[in-house]
Amino acid sequence: MKLFTTFRLILPVALCCAAADASTVVDFNFDSDTLGTTTTFTDTVDGPSATFSSAADPGGFVVFPTMFETPTGNVLGNPGPAFAFDIPLDVSFSGNLSAITLDFATGDFNTPSPFSIAAYENTTPVGSSTSTGQFLPGFTFPEGEITFDGGTFNNVVISTPSPNFAVDNIHVLATAPEPGTLTMLAAGLLLSVAGAIRRRGSPR
């Protein structure tokens, strides 16, 4: 009876710790940012934060209303008031990610330029992904979507040979900090208490 009661008390703790393994999907879309906001700036959505910056700051990239089909609402693009072209966009996150997907448009009038994401864990390279947009009927610039989901990272550098580009709808999969440790701790506690009760109930 004591063993059952102990299990009933500790099992919810183990389940809560295991639930921490679930990742969180967060969407950074600039729609809550004031038009004209320039890099460097930080957006926070449901806990996780993303800091947008560039080598041309202050004012390398700017939030402006979309002129595209896929990137909707507000978008972040260059040139900003620094009037700099051919610059990458750096995005640093407050925690680790396991995947990122975003919409983009490049400033090409003829052949669409390749568009790339390079992912880092702090300063250590994790991997990269490249995509190419397409010209959509009725729109001037090529648009596309790009995804990177290889490993754990907390920073991305977004770049293209095109002189300018815009991004929007940045969906990230944010991982919970050290969830495996919490789960193992709860499981260990459960087994230790169960063993102690079993020993106490054994005849001497």
How does this model look, in words?
With 204 residues, the protein is of the alpha+beta class. It has one domain: Jelly Rolls (Sandwich), CATH 2.60.120. The chain contains two helices and eleven strands; from the N terminus they run H-E-E-E-E-E-E-E-E-E-E-E-H. Strands 1, 2, 3, 4, 5, 6, 7, 8, 9, 10 and 11 form an eleven-stranded antiparallel sheet that branches. Strand 2 and strand 3 form a beta hairpin.
For this structure, the CATH topology is Jelly Rolls
Fraction of residues in helix: 10-25%
Share in β-strands: 35-45%
Low-confidence stretches: 1-21, 179-199
Count of helices? Answer: 2
What's the CATH architecture name? Answer: Sandwich
CATH C-level category: Mainly Beta
Features:
single chain, 204 residues, alpha+beta, Jelly Rolls, eleven-stranded antiparallel sheet, 2 helices, 11 strands, disordered N terminus
Quick structural summary:
The chain is of the alpha+beta class. The chain has helices at residues 2-19, 179-201, and strands at residues 24-28, 41-44, 49-53, 62-65, 74-77, 89-106, 114-121, 124-132, 143-148, 153-159, 165-174. α1 (2-19) runs antiparallel to α2.
Task: Produce the secondary structure layout.
Blueprint lengths: L1 H18 L4 E5 L12 E4 L4 E5 L8 E4 L8 E4 L11 E18 L7 E8 L2 E9 L10 E6 L4 E7 L5 E10 L4 H23 L3
Antiparallel strand pairs: 1-11, 2-3, 3-6, 4-5, 5-11, 6-9, 6-10, 6-11, 7-8, 7-10
